[in-house]
């Protein structure tokens, strides 16, 4: 399992107390991981309502499977894997996984005023990511932000490593087009 750059430490005694059924300890774990799980789900699903559902499903699974946690890997890595699986399962259920990218002019982000530069860049990137098909957005996020390999992504998405590679390549080209970034590397 790859290690996220967003690793979150959790005291072993807190996990141990939650494993014994201590409600207060589980609530502390929930509060500690609520935002990171929601953010991860939002990046994969691209929808706040779906991300909220993934958060709830992930925490329910955590509650039921916490006794199975052996402590041989970082807790956040273990929980993150549950969240990724739940988000991808939700996408599969919705039959939203699309392998091909189609470029539509209507998908281009619209100019909406002049917020501060960093906020404008973040908002523009968010709109561009939302314009991508769910599969492409998921692969890009898992690969670039979460650090998964193409083989790991292929396994998670029940596809081939070449699917992951092509989604990263196509998705990057699509993001460049949506963000009006010229490719300075000429092959």
Automatic annotation (TrEMBL):
User: Which ranges carry the RNA polymerase sigma factor 70 region 4 type domain?
Assistant: 124-175
The record, for Gene3D superfamilies, names: 1.10.1740.10, Winged helix-like DNA-binding domain superfamily/Winged helix DNA-binding domain
Domain of life where this protein originates = Bacteria
**Keywords associated with the record:** Sigma factor, Transcription, Transcription regulation
Q: Which SUPFAM superfamilies match?
A: Sigma2 domain of RNA polymerase sigma factors, Sigma3 and sigma4 domains of RNA polymerase sigma factors
> Which parts of the sequence belong to the RNA polymerase sigma-70 region domain?
29-96
Q: Which residues form the signal peptide?
A: none
- Enumerate the PANTHER family for this protein: RNA POLYMERASE ECF-TYPE SIGMA FACTO, RNA POLYMERASE SIGMA-70 FACTOR ECF SUBFAMILY
The family line of this record is: Belongs to the sigma-70 factor family. ECF subfamily.
**Record's protein name:** Sigma-70 family RNA polymerase sigma factor
């Amino acid at each position: 399992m790859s290690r996220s750059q967003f690793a979150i430490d959790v005291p072993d005694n807190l996990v141990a107390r939650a494993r014994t059924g201590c409600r207060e300890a589980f609530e502390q774990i929930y509060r500690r991981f609520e935002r990171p799980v929601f953010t991860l789900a939002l990046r994969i699903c691209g929808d706040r309502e779906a991300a909220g559902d993934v958060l709830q499903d992930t925490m329910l699974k955590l509650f039921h499977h916490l006794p199975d946690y052996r402590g041989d890997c970082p807790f956040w890595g273990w929980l993150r894997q549950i969240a990724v699986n739940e988000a991808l399962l939700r996408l599969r259920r919705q039959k939203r996984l699309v392998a091909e990218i189609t470029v539509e002019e209507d998908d281009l982000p619209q100019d909406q005023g002049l917020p501060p530069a960093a906020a404008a860049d973040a908002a523009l990137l968010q709109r561009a990511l939302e314009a991508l098909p769910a599969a492409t957005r998921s692969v890009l996020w898992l690969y670039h932000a979460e650090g998964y390999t193409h083989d790991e992504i292929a396994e998670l998405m029940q596809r081939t490593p070449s699917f992951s590679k092509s989604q990263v390549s196509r998705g990057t080209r699509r993001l460049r087009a949506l963000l009006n970034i010229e490719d300075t590397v000429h092959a």
